[in-house]
Specification:
Keywords: Flavoprotein, FMN, Monooxygenase, Oxidoreductase. The chain contains 13 helices and 13 strands. With 372 residues, it is an alpha/beta fold. The longest helix has 26 residues.
């Protein structure tokens, strides 16, 4: 299959792949810059991006805003002509300030999920940055398109669909994830009921087609193309081909880039992926109630047993977090992961993380994903 470049407005990625944003500290300037240099779209995660700064504990907001500029400059130095953007979660405190800082740094693209980015156009204002909401259902994409059109007289420049096989925080309820597991067996997350695999696969493909149909309606209204990118469980060339056969314009891949030489994470984090078995990939509950996918380790076993993990003073990461009530601090757990302290960490991953067998380069991963 021949793949066309991924275009949105004046931005063109020669390879139609977006490297998914992974925080805390997993996709920073080095990974994003290398992906952009190879021809894809490199994405820096803004989530607690300043965790290495000396003043992070005292003033996390200031440290994060400063580091957004630093990591962008690092990526841009690696890929002077590449497409580089940020993933900024709606659920983050100071969301508006982080979006503004990314724009000021020079970001080509802002991808935003973990909530619907209803007022992202207002924050972006008259800047030339491209805006891409993350959606998981036809309903959510319809809500965003209608709202942006009515209130801001604009549409998304690109849409990212994250399916039920994605890693990290997920745009599905626990009940929906259980439904997909029941429907699709080992296509989702660790079930062994492979006999129903095709049925479940078709089920989410139907949702993707509905999203594409809705985007097409708005493309005709605004008389320009709005590319759609599919994410979640895309880890080899066959999955890439299946995605494009549905009619999308590109794919977003995250997990495959963790086990690369250029990934910003500690080598021990990467090794946790290499060591993981299929049954180790589980659905977890974030301290603020959102479901996610991660590797079952000592830390996660303690959480599942109801143990409350002591945490540092609040770093103000998520809107809905109450430090007095949470079983553990997600910032602490993810910083442990980025530093390679894997048994004390929340090890977010995609459904197929267990398939990783070696450390590769970014270029090797992209070549493998898009091989004939």
């Amino acid at each position: 299959m021949d793949y066309k470049p991924l275009k949105t407005g004046n931005l063109t990625a020669k390879v139609p792949v977006i490297q998914g944003g992974m925080g805390i500290g997993i996709s920073l300037g080095n990974l994003a810059g290398t992906v952009a240099k190879v021809g894809g779209i490199g994405i820096i995660s803004a989530a607690q991006i300043g965790f290495k700064e000396a003043d992070f504990d005292q003033n996390p907001e200031k440290a994060n805003l400063r580091t957004i500029q630093k990591e962008y400059e690092k990526a841009r130095k690696i890929a002077p002509d590449g497409v580089i953007g940020f993933n900024i979660m709606v659920a983050m405190r100071h969301y508006e300030k982080y979006v503004e800082a990314a724009i000021q740094a020079g970001a080509d693209l802002i991808i935003s999920g973990a909530g619907l980015p209803m007022d992202l156009p207002k924050i972006a204002g008259a800047s030339q940055v491209k805006l891409a909401p993350i959606v998981s259902s036809e309903k959510s994409v319809r809500v965003i398109f209608r709202y942006w059109e009515k209130k801001y007289k604009r549409q998304p420049d690109l849409v990212v669909i994250e399916g039920p096989l994605a890693g990290g925080h997920l745009g599905f309820s626990v009940e929906e994830l259980e439904m997909y597991e029941e429907e699709c067996g080992n296509l989702c997350h660790g079930s062994v009921n492979s006999g129903s695999e095709n049925r479940g696969k078709k089920k989410y493909e139907d949702e993707v087609r509905k999203i594409l149909e809705t985007v097409k309606i708005y493309e005709e209204k605004c008389d320009h193309e709005i590319p759609v990118v599919l994410a979640g469980g895309i880890d080899d060339a066959s999955k890439v081909k299946e995605a494009f056969a549905l009619g999308v314009d590109g794919v977003q891949v995250a997990t495959r880039f963790v086990t690369t030489k250029e990934c910003d994470a500690d080598i021990r984090y990467k090794q946790a992926y290499l060591d993981a078995k299929k049954e180790d990939i589980v659905i977890v509950k974030s301290p603020v109630g959102m479901p996610g996918r991660a590797i079952l380790n000592t830390f996660q076993k303690k959480v599942r047993a109801g143990e409350k993990i002591p945490h540092s003073p609040c770093h103000g990461c998520l809107h809905k977090c109450n430090p007095a009530e949470i079983p553990y601090c997600i910032t602490d757990a993810l910083i442990h992961a980025a530093k390679g302290e894997v048994e004390d960490a929340l090890l977010f991953c995609g459904a197929n993380a267990y398939k990783a067998t070696k450390i590769e380069t970014v270029e090797e991963v992209i070549q493998d994903l898009f091989k004939a």
